[in-house]
Design goal:
globular, mainly alpha, 2 strands, single chain
Length: 135
């Protein structure tokens, strides 16, 4: 059942824990990476959460490519998370920022991409016999 666990639930849980429990701002600087040009790249808390969510998106797409009977249940859970996150974005003031909006867009890509990959894989698995007289 862990294979059907939607990874984006972790991203939204982390967001909600930081937004509602800790007083840390999303522009809090986690690290500064010196670049060869002499400039410094500041990595913020929001940047880190978005990067983690993109890694989760990669794993969700890999899971979607392996079509199984659990994949439909996984997509339903991902869709439910997207709908709940969309409601939170519209109704909760602490979620009305660009970090949460970006998480919402990543979740949307997960939902639409997951359904599209699964449908394409299912279409590929349907046997077609050109000599059956259909058509």
């Amino acid at each position: 059942m862990l294979g059907s666990f939607p990874l984006f639930l972790i991203s939204f849980a982390i967001y909600n824990m930081i937004a509602f429990i800790t007083p840390v701002a999303w522009d809090y600087k986690l690290a500064a990476v010196p670049l060869y040009s002499g400039a410094e790249w500041a990595i913020t808390l929001g940047d880190g959460l978005i990067a983690l969510s993109l890694v989760f998106l990669l794993f969700e797409m890999i899971k979607a490519a392996g079509a199984s009977s659990r994949s439909v249940f996984d997509h339903l859970l991902s869709t439910l998370i997207f709908v709940a996150a969309g409601a939170e974005f519209l109704l909760v003031p602490a979620a009305a920022n660009s970090v949460f909006a970006t998480l919402l867009v990543i979740s949307f890509v997960d939902v639409v991409g997951g359904w599209a990959v699964t449908m394409r894989a299912a279409r590929r698995d349907v046997p077609f016999d050109p000599g059956s007289g259909a058509g």
